[in-house]
Amino acid sequence: MTYHPKSDFMAVMMQRGFLADCTDYQGLDEALSNGVVPAYIGFDATATSLHVGSLIQIMMLRWLQKTGHKPITLMGGGTTKVGDPSFRADERPLLGPEQIDANIAGIKQVFAAFMTYDDSPTGALMLNNAEWLDGLNYLDFLRDIGRHFSINRMLSFESVKSRLDREQSLSFLEFNYMILQAYDFLELNRRYGCMLQMGGSDQWGNIVNGIDLTRRVLDHEIYGLTSPLLTTSDGKKMGKSQSGAVWLNADLCSPYEFWQFWRNTTDADTGKFLKLYTELPVEECDRLGALEGSEINAAKIILANEVTTLLHGAEAAAAAEATAREVFEKGGVGDDLPTLTLTAAELGDGLSIVQALVKSGLAGSGKEAKRLISENGARLNDEPLTDAGLMLDAAALAQPIKLSAGKKRHAIVQLG
User: At what angle do helices 158-165 and 204-218 cross, to 10 degrees?
Assistant: First the structure.
């Protein structure tokens, strides 16, 4: 589709690769050109931190504010009690209110690094949908809102259909989720003049429902815009690494580990990720992404530094790069490496090298650790590790030791 946007925000979305679909390109572009557009993305509180998979949405909200509009970060304090069934094979475990509140407190920490929350016309808003969902009267809700939803149409949405086609159970609780998300958009429009909902392309059906509901109840024109669901060029889901999810909160994923995740980007993804996750000019992203051979590594270091600076600050990015250089170029032990500190009680009579690899996060299981050793992928203090039966005792840990899995993943094991 060749559409030439008038608004800065739409131009950024299209040029940098954020745009998968939009309910009305021209209508939204006009609205963005005519004044401040409040827009929201919802984040369910299923864990104490978001992971890298959510960073594309956070960047969309950041660009929205940078181009003169008002971002709304909506915490799903209410909807998390139900769980989004979109494209899931099974029902999410239900969380209690205390856990949901703790998760929201953890998630909120990240947003302030990307957006400015204040009372100005473009100041970001932090809201929680429990504010209007917790107090709903069931019968009133059914009569006022439920009557606008067609079951036939809800069953036709891909997120629901894919579950039913596989003959997997979809509970009535989960089936309500799309009605609640639609109701969020209606309430945000009514209370805050919100005109746009954004999200990943798996949210298309939920977004369209909210637009329809708001038109029917309030007769207001509102819009939806989705981003592509990202996978890396080798087909992996964005946000997952060998050792699991790459979290945004520093207590779950250190700035060094975060930096290292971006430094390990495949050559083919470097240009695309520079456009999505940094604010470097598009031409510069294309130039860096087109580098080949060892030169592309310089582009990956720029990517890692830029993304880490946005989330954790310039000092953390510089420290991570210095640690990486020390580890890879000099074979030294960097201060920022993930560290496993064992007490004398935990060490006891000794810890097997296999357990040390698992506990330090370099292997997901004992089986994986043994395979790593047998395939010559593990190193101890930069020397090949060949004995899977090796035991570490207090004497072996008199000095901190460095364990490595492959060339790029390292950890320190020490006695506390």
Answer: 130
Report the phi/psi class of residue 115: left, alpha or beta, with left for phi > 0 and alpha for psi in -120 to 50: beta
What whole-number distance in Å separates Cα of residue 234 and Cα of residue 240?
12
What single-letter DSSP state applies at residue 67? Answer: T
The predicted pLDDT at position 241 comes to: 58
How high is the mean pLDDT of the chain? 88
How far apart, in Å, are the Cα atoms of 37 and each of 28, 121, 302, 335? Answer: 9, 10, 32, 45
Residues 177-204: what's their mean pLDDT? 94
- Under the banding of pLDDT at 50, 70 and 90, the label for residue 410 is confident
Q: For position 356, what pLDDT does the model report?
A: 86
294 DSSP 8-state letter: T
- Phi and psi at residue 403, in whole multiples of 5°? -105, 145
Question: What's the CA gap between 238 and 229, in Å, rounded?
Answer: 8
- Please give the single-letter amino acid code of residue 248: L
Phi and psi at residue 73, to the nearest 5°: -95, 115
Q: pLDDT band for 205, please (50, 70, 90 cuts).
A: confident
Pairing of β 391-392 and β 351-352: antiparallel
Q: Where are the beta strands (DSSP E) in 219-293?
A: 223-227, 240-241, 244-245
Instruction: Provide the token pair at 51.
Output: 């992971």
Interatomic CA distance for residues 68 and 58, integer angstroms: 16
Phi, psi of 259 (to 5 degrees): -60, -45
Q: Which candidate, 415, 357, 350, places its Cα nearest to that of 385?
A: 357
